[in-house]
Design a protein that fits this description.
18% strand, alpha/beta, metal-binding, binds adenosine-5'-diphosphate, ATP_PFK_prok-type, binds 1,6-di-O-phosphono-beta-D-fructofuranose, Phosphofructokinase_CS, nucleotide-binding, Rossmann fold
Protein backbone atom coordinates (compact mmCIF):
# COMPACT_ATOMS: atom_id res chain seq x y z
CA UNK A 1 0.00 0.00 0.00
CA UNK A 2 1.33 3.41 -0.95
CA UNK A 3 1.16 6.04 1.79
CA UNK A 4 3.90 8.41 0.66
CA UNK A 5 5.34 9.04 -2.77
CA UNK A 6 8.01 11.26 -4.29
CA UNK A 7 7.80 13.16 -7.57
CA UNK A 8 10.41 14.96 -9.67
CA UNK A 9 10.94 16.47 -13.12
CA UNK A 10 14.24 15.65 -14.84
CA UNK A 11 16.14 16.35 -18.06
CA UNK A 12 15.04 18.99 -20.56
CA UNK A 13 11.97 20.76 -19.21
CA UNK A 14 8.87 20.55 -21.37
CA UNK A 15 5.63 22.57 -21.46
CA UNK A 16 3.04 20.50 -19.63
CA UNK A 17 5.31 19.28 -16.84
CA UNK A 18 3.40 21.52 -14.42
CA UNK A 19 0.12 20.06 -15.63
CA UNK A 20 1.55 16.61 -14.89
CA UNK A 21 2.69 17.62 -11.39
CA UNK A 22 -0.77 19.02 -10.68
CA UNK A 23 -2.59 15.91 -11.87
CA UNK A 24 -0.26 13.62 -9.90
CA UNK A 25 -0.74 15.61 -6.67
CA UNK A 26 -4.53 15.80 -7.04
CA UNK A 27 -4.81 12.08 -7.85
CA UNK A 28 -2.52 11.15 -4.96
CA UNK A 29 -4.59 13.27 -2.56
CA UNK A 30 -7.73 11.45 -3.72
CA UNK A 31 -6.00 8.19 -2.69
CA UNK A 32 -4.78 9.64 0.63
CA UNK A 33 -1.17 9.52 -0.52
CA UNK A 34 1.23 12.19 0.76
CA UNK A 35 3.46 13.70 -1.94
CA UNK A 36 7.01 14.97 -1.58
CA UNK A 37 8.36 16.97 -4.54
CA UNK A 38 12.11 16.82 -5.18
CA UNK A 39 13.63 19.95 -6.66
CA UNK A 40 16.12 20.14 -9.56
CA UNK A 41 15.55 16.61 -10.83
CA UNK A 42 17.55 13.80 -9.26
CA UNK A 43 19.76 16.40 -7.55
CA UNK A 44 16.91 16.96 -5.10
CA UNK A 45 17.26 13.36 -3.94
CA UNK A 46 21.01 13.65 -3.49
CA UNK A 47 20.97 17.08 -1.88
CA UNK A 48 17.97 16.64 0.41
CA UNK A 49 16.14 19.40 -1.47
CA UNK A 50 12.43 18.65 -1.25
CA UNK A 51 9.03 20.06 -0.32
CA UNK A 52 5.64 18.68 0.63
CA UNK A 53 3.16 19.07 -2.22
CA UNK A 54 -0.48 19.60 -1.27
CA UNK A 55 -3.34 20.27 -3.69
CA UNK A 56 -3.22 23.98 -2.81
CA UNK A 57 0.42 24.12 -3.98
CA UNK A 58 -0.50 23.05 -7.50
CA UNK A 59 -3.40 25.42 -8.04
CA UNK A 60 -3.19 27.46 -11.25
CA UNK A 61 0.06 26.00 -12.47
CA UNK A 62 -1.51 24.04 -15.35
CA UNK A 63 -1.09 26.95 -17.77
CA UNK A 64 2.58 27.64 -17.05
CA UNK A 65 5.62 26.40 -18.97
CA UNK A 66 8.75 25.19 -17.17
CA UNK A 67 8.33 23.20 -13.97
CA UNK A 68 7.63 24.44 -10.46
CA UNK A 69 9.90 21.66 -9.19
CA UNK A 70 12.75 22.89 -11.47
CA UNK A 71 14.60 20.46 -13.68
CA UNK A 72 18.24 19.55 -14.16
CA UNK A 73 20.61 16.92 -15.37
CA UNK A 74 22.46 15.08 -12.60
CA UNK A 75 25.95 13.71 -13.30
CA UNK A 76 26.22 11.87 -9.99
CA UNK A 77 23.41 9.50 -10.91
CA UNK A 78 25.58 8.00 -13.63
CA UNK A 79 27.61 6.33 -10.87
CA UNK A 80 26.44 3.41 -8.74
CA UNK A 81 27.28 5.42 -5.61
CA UNK A 82 24.93 8.18 -6.78
CA UNK A 83 22.11 5.72 -7.48
CA UNK A 84 22.62 4.12 -4.05
CA UNK A 85 22.53 7.54 -2.36
CA UNK A 86 19.30 8.42 -4.19
CA UNK A 87 17.69 5.16 -3.02
CA UNK A 88 18.86 5.82 0.55
CA UNK A 89 17.15 9.23 0.47
CA UNK A 90 13.90 7.59 -0.65
CA UNK A 91 14.14 5.05 2.20
CA UNK A 92 15.04 7.73 4.74
CA UNK A 93 11.97 9.76 3.77
CA UNK A 94 9.87 6.57 3.95
CA UNK A 95 8.65 6.94 0.39
CA UNK A 96 6.81 3.92 -1.00
CA UNK A 97 7.03 5.09 -4.60
CA UNK A 98 8.71 7.59 -6.94
CA UNK A 99 7.14 9.20 -10.01
CA UNK A 100 9.60 10.62 -12.55
CA UNK A 101 8.53 13.03 -15.28
CA UNK A 102 11.25 13.16 -17.94
CA UNK A 103 12.70 11.60 -21.06
CA UNK A 104 14.33 8.23 -21.67
CA UNK A 105 17.58 9.45 -20.05
CA UNK A 106 15.70 10.08 -16.81
CA UNK A 107 14.19 6.62 -17.12
CA UNK A 108 17.74 5.16 -17.29
CA UNK A 109 18.33 7.03 -14.03
CA UNK A 110 15.17 5.45 -12.61
CA UNK A 111 16.45 1.99 -13.48
CA UNK A 112 19.76 2.74 -11.77
CA UNK A 113 17.97 3.81 -8.57
CA UNK A 114 15.74 0.71 -8.74
CA UNK A 115 18.86 -1.45 -8.25
CA UNK A 116 18.94 -0.23 -4.64
CA UNK A 117 15.37 0.92 -3.90
CA UNK A 118 12.69 -1.24 -2.30
CA UNK A 119 9.74 0.91 -3.42
CA UNK A 120 7.89 1.25 -6.75
CA UNK A 121 9.02 3.51 -9.61
CA UNK A 122 6.93 4.83 -12.49
CA UNK A 123 7.74 7.23 -15.36
CA UNK A 124 5.71 9.83 -17.22
CA UNK A 125 7.18 10.88 -20.61
CA UNK A 126 7.98 14.61 -20.61
CA UNK A 127 10.28 15.93 -23.34
CA UNK A 128 9.77 18.17 -26.35
CA UNK A 129 11.69 15.67 -28.52
CA UNK A 130 9.00 12.92 -28.67
CA UNK A 131 11.82 10.39 -28.79
CA UNK A 132 10.44 7.99 -26.17
CA UNK A 133 9.15 4.59 -27.26
CA UNK A 134 5.89 3.27 -25.78
CA UNK A 135 3.83 6.43 -26.19
CA UNK A 136 2.54 8.09 -29.35
CA UNK A 137 3.42 11.53 -27.97
CA UNK A 138 5.45 12.93 -25.11
CA UNK A 139 4.33 15.86 -22.98
CA UNK A 140 5.66 19.12 -24.48
CA UNK A 141 6.00 17.97 -28.08
CA UNK A 142 2.75 19.55 -29.30
CA UNK A 143 3.66 22.92 -27.77
CA UNK A 144 7.18 22.81 -29.21
CA UNK A 145 5.73 22.24 -32.70
CA UNK A 146 3.44 25.26 -32.37
CA UNK A 147 6.29 27.42 -31.05
CA UNK A 148 8.56 26.39 -33.92
CA UNK A 149 5.74 26.90 -36.40
CA UNK A 150 5.06 30.40 -35.18
CA UNK A 151 8.76 31.24 -35.64
CA UNK A 152 9.02 29.66 -39.09
CA UNK A 153 5.91 31.53 -40.28
CA UNK A 154 7.60 34.77 -39.22
CA UNK A 155 10.83 33.79 -40.95
CA UNK A 156 8.77 33.11 -44.08
CA UNK A 157 7.61 36.75 -44.09
CA UNK A 158 11.12 38.16 -44.09
CA UNK A 159 12.38 35.40 -46.42
CA UNK A 160 9.61 36.31 -48.88
CA UNK A 161 10.38 40.02 -48.63
CA UNK A 162 14.09 39.46 -49.37
CA UNK A 163 13.57 36.44 -51.65
CA UNK A 164 16.01 34.61 -49.45
CA UNK A 165 16.98 31.05 -48.63
CA UNK A 166 16.71 30.36 -44.89
CA UNK A 167 17.88 27.35 -42.91
CA UNK A 168 15.99 27.02 -39.62
CA UNK A 169 17.51 24.73 -37.01
CA UNK A 170 15.10 23.01 -34.63
CA UNK A 171 15.81 20.92 -31.52
CA UNK A 172 15.31 17.20 -31.07
CA UNK A 173 18.73 15.99 -29.93
CA UNK A 174 19.10 12.97 -32.29
CA UNK A 175 15.46 12.80 -33.32
CA UNK A 176 13.81 14.49 -36.30
CA UNK A 177 10.28 14.49 -34.83
CA UNK A 178 10.13 18.23 -34.19
CA UNK A 179 11.78 19.09 -37.50
CA UNK A 180 9.55 16.84 -39.58
CA UNK A 181 6.32 17.93 -37.88
CA UNK A 182 7.05 21.66 -37.78
CA UNK A 183 8.56 21.56 -41.29
CA UNK A 184 5.47 19.88 -42.74
CA UNK A 185 3.13 22.27 -40.95
CA UNK A 186 5.13 25.30 -42.10
CA UNK A 187 5.24 24.15 -45.72
CA UNK A 188 9.04 24.04 -45.67
CA UNK A 189 10.61 23.38 -49.05
CA UNK A 190 13.09 20.91 -47.54
CA UNK A 191 13.44 19.10 -44.22
CA UNK A 192 16.69 17.55 -43.01
CA UNK A 193 16.61 15.04 -40.14
CA UNK A 194 19.24 12.83 -38.49
CA UNK A 195 17.07 9.86 -39.51
CA UNK A 196 18.16 10.50 -43.12
CA UNK A 197 21.80 9.98 -42.04
CA UNK A 198 24.31 12.72 -41.19
CA UNK A 199 24.70 14.93 -44.22
CA UNK A 200 28.32 15.25 -45.33
CA UNK A 201 29.91 18.33 -46.89
CA UNK A 202 30.42 16.44 -50.16
CA UNK A 203 26.74 15.51 -50.39
CA UNK A 204 25.28 18.99 -50.82
CA UNK A 205 24.26 18.27 -54.42
CA UNK A 206 21.12 16.54 -53.17
CA UNK A 207 20.08 19.78 -51.44
CA UNK A 208 21.10 22.09 -54.25
CA UNK A 209 19.22 20.34 -57.07
CA UNK A 210 15.74 20.97 -55.65
CA UNK A 211 16.66 24.59 -54.84
CA UNK A 212 17.73 25.21 -58.44
CA UNK A 213 14.66 23.38 -59.68
CA UNK A 214 12.41 25.60 -57.55
CA UNK A 215 14.19 28.71 -58.80
CA UNK A 216 13.61 27.64 -62.40
CA UNK A 217 9.94 26.87 -61.76
CA UNK A 218 9.01 29.77 -59.53
CA UNK A 219 11.62 32.37 -60.23
CA UNK A 220 12.91 34.26 -57.25
CA UNK A 221 11.06 33.26 -54.13
CA UNK A 222 11.65 32.44 -50.48
CA UNK A 223 12.95 28.96 -49.72
CA UNK A 224 12.96 27.42 -46.25
CA UNK A 225 14.96 24.39 -45.20
CA UNK A 226 14.12 23.07 -41.75
CA UNK A 227 17.14 21.33 -40.23
CA UNK A 228 17.01 19.13 -37.13
CA UNK A 229 19.97 19.75 -34.83
CA UNK A 230 22.84 17.26 -35.22
CA UNK A 231 22.12 16.71 -38.91
CA UNK A 232 25.28 18.33 -40.28
CA UNK A 233 28.85 18.33 -38.93
CA UNK A 234 29.52 21.85 -37.65
CA UNK A 235 25.82 22.65 -37.33
CA UNK A 236 23.32 24.61 -39.38
CA UNK A 237 25.41 27.80 -39.59
CA UNK A 238 28.18 25.78 -41.26
CA UNK A 239 25.62 24.21 -43.58
CA UNK A 240 24.27 27.65 -44.57
CA UNK A 241 27.81 28.82 -45.33
CA UNK A 242 28.53 25.72 -47.41
CA UNK A 243 25.28 26.17 -49.35
CA UNK A 244 25.99 29.89 -49.90
CA UNK A 245 29.34 28.99 -51.44
CA UNK A 246 27.94 26.18 -53.55
CA UNK A 247 24.96 28.18 -54.85
CA UNK A 248 26.60 31.57 -55.07
CA UNK A 249 23.58 33.01 -53.20
CA UNK A 250 23.54 34.14 -49.56
CA UNK A 251 21.75 31.65 -47.30
CA UNK A 252 20.80 32.68 -43.77
CA UNK A 253 20.77 30.36 -40.74
CA UNK A 254 18.37 30.81 -37.83
CA UNK A 255 18.89 28.63 -34.75
CA UNK A 256 15.66 28.53 -32.77
CA UNK A 257 17.18 26.92 -29.66
CA UNK A 258 15.59 26.91 -26.23
CA UNK A 259 12.62 29.07 -27.27
CA UNK A 260 11.14 25.71 -28.25
CA UNK A 261 11.20 24.53 -24.63
CA UNK A 262 9.23 27.44 -23.18
CA UNK A 263 5.77 28.90 -23.25
CA UNK A 264 2.32 28.04 -22.03
CA UNK A 265 1.47 24.42 -22.92
CA UNK A 266 -1.12 24.00 -25.69
CA UNK A 267 -4.36 22.21 -24.85
CA UNK A 268 -3.15 18.86 -26.20
CA UNK A 269 -0.14 18.89 -23.86
CA UNK A 270 -2.22 19.86 -20.81
CA UNK A 271 -4.67 17.05 -21.52
CA UNK A 272 -1.95 14.47 -22.19
CA UNK A 273 -0.05 15.51 -19.05
CA UNK A 274 -3.17 15.30 -16.91
CA UNK A 275 -4.14 11.89 -18.27
CA UNK A 276 -0.68 10.31 -18.02
CA UNK A 277 0.19 11.62 -14.56
CA UNK A 278 -3.21 10.66 -13.11
CA UNK A 279 -2.93 7.23 -14.74
CA UNK A 280 0.61 6.82 -13.39
CA UNK A 281 -0.52 7.40 -9.79
CA UNK A 282 -3.48 5.03 -10.21
CA UNK A 283 -1.20 2.38 -11.66
CA UNK A 284 1.24 2.78 -8.75
CA UNK A 285 -1.71 2.09 -6.45
CA UNK A 286 -2.41 -1.02 -8.57
CA UNK A 287 1.17 -2.18 -8.01
CA UNK A 288 2.92 -0.99 -11.22
CA UNK A 289 6.72 -0.90 -10.97
CA UNK A 290 9.41 0.06 -13.49
CA UNK A 291 6.75 1.07 -16.00
CA UNK A 292 6.10 4.23 -18.01
CA UNK A 293 2.58 5.61 -18.30
CA UNK A 294 2.14 6.33 -22.00
CA UNK A 295 -0.70 6.77 -24.47
CA UNK A 296 -1.10 4.59 -27.55
CA UNK A 297 -4.05 5.15 -29.91
CA UNK A 298 -5.68 7.39 -27.27
CA UNK A 299 -5.55 4.64 -24.65
CA UNK A 300 -3.41 5.07 -21.55
CA UNK A 301 -1.02 2.13 -21.43
CA UNK A 302 1.93 0.90 -19.38
CA UNK A 303 5.25 0.24 -21.10
CA UNK A 304 8.41 -1.17 -19.49
CA UNK A 305 10.78 1.68 -18.52
CA UNK A 306 13.71 -0.45 -19.69
CA UNK A 307 12.37 -0.46 -23.26
CA UNK A 308 11.58 3.23 -23.67
CA UNK A 309 14.92 4.03 -25.30
CA UNK A 310 15.82 0.61 -26.63
CA UNK A 311 15.11 1.34 -30.29
CA UNK A 312 14.90 4.60 -32.18
CA UNK A 313 11.32 5.82 -32.39
CA UNK A 314 10.55 6.16 -36.10
CA UNK A 315 9.36 9.41 -37.61
CA UNK A 316 6.28 9.11 -39.85
CA UNK A 317 7.46 7.35 -43.06
CA UNK A 318 4.39 8.58 -44.98
CA UNK A 319 5.19 12.24 -44.27
CA UNK A 320 8.89 11.65 -45.00
CA UNK A 321 8.05 10.18 -48.41
CA UNK A 322 5.56 12.94 -49.22
CA UNK A 323 8.01 15.66 -48.25
CA UNK A 324 10.89 14.14 -50.18
CA UNK A 325 9.05 13.08 -53.32
CA UNK A 326 6.47 15.82 -53.66
CA UNK A 327 7.06 18.92 -51.51
CA UNK A 328 10.85 19.08 -51.93
CA UNK A 329 11.02 18.11 -55.58
N1 LIG B 1 22.43 5.75 -18.11
C1 LIG B 1 22.07 6.51 -17.07
N2 LIG B 1 22.30 6.08 -15.81
C2 LIG B 1 21.93 6.81 -14.73
N3 LIG B 1 21.31 8.02 -14.84
C3 LIG B 1 21.06 8.50 -16.06
C4 LIG B 1 21.44 7.78 -17.23
N4 LIG B 1 21.05 8.51 -18.32
C5 LIG B 1 20.49 9.64 -17.83
N5 LIG B 1 20.48 9.63 -16.48
C6 LIG B 1 19.97 10.67 -15.58
O1 LIG B 1 18.85 11.31 -16.14
C7 LIG B 1 19.14 12.71 -16.31
C8 LIG B 1 18.39 13.25 -17.48
O2 LIG B 1 18.76 12.57 -18.67
P1 LIG B 1 18.80 13.32 -20.07
O3 LIG B 1 19.16 12.30 -21.10
O4 LIG B 1 19.67 14.51 -19.96
O5 LIG B 1 17.32 13.89 -20.26
P2 LIG B 1 15.94 13.20 -20.62
O6 LIG B 1 15.43 12.49 -19.41
O7 LIG B 1 15.07 14.35 -20.98
O8 LIG B 1 16.20 12.24 -21.77
C9 LIG B 1 20.66 12.75 -16.43
O9 LIG B 1 21.19 14.01 -16.12
C10 LIG B 1 21.06 11.72 -15.40
O10 LIG B 1 20.96 12.22 -14.08
O1 LIG C 1 19.19 22.43 -22.45
P1 LIG C 1 20.41 21.74 -22.94
O2 LIG C 1 21.17 21.08 -21.86
O3 LIG C 1 21.22 22.66 -23.81
O4 LIG C 1 19.95 20.54 -23.87
C1 LIG C 1 19.44 20.68 -25.15
C2 LIG C 1 18.70 19.43 -25.50
O5 LIG C 1 17.56 19.32 -24.67
C3 LIG C 1 16.40 19.16 -25.46
O6 LIG C 1 15.78 20.43 -25.61
C4 LIG C 1 15.41 18.25 -24.76
O7 LIG C 1 16.03 16.98 -24.61
P2 LIG C 1 15.73 16.03 -23.38
O8 LIG C 1 14.27 16.16 -23.08
O9 LIG C 1 16.12 14.66 -23.85
O10 LIG C 1 16.55 16.48 -22.23
C5 LIG C 1 16.92 18.64 -26.80
O11 LIG C 1 16.03 18.91 -27.87
C6 LIG C 1 18.21 19.38 -26.92
O12 LIG C 1 19.13 18.70 -27.74
Amino acid sequence: MIKRMGILTSGGDAPGMNAAIRAAVLTAAAHNIDVIGFRHGFNGLLEDDQQTLLPQHVQHIIQHGGTVLKSARCKALHTDAGARQAAEALHRLQLDALLIIGGDGSFRGALAIAQHYRGQIIGVPGTIDNDVDGTDFTIGFATAIDTALDAIDKIRDTADAFERIFLVELMGRHSGYIALSAGIAAGAEQIICPEFGTLQANELKALIKPIQHAQLLRGKSSYIIVVAENSYPGGTTALAEALSTALGIECRACILGHIQRGGSPVGADRILATKLAAYAVEQLVNGAHLMMAGEVNQQAALYPLAQTGERKKQIDPYLVRWQQQIASD
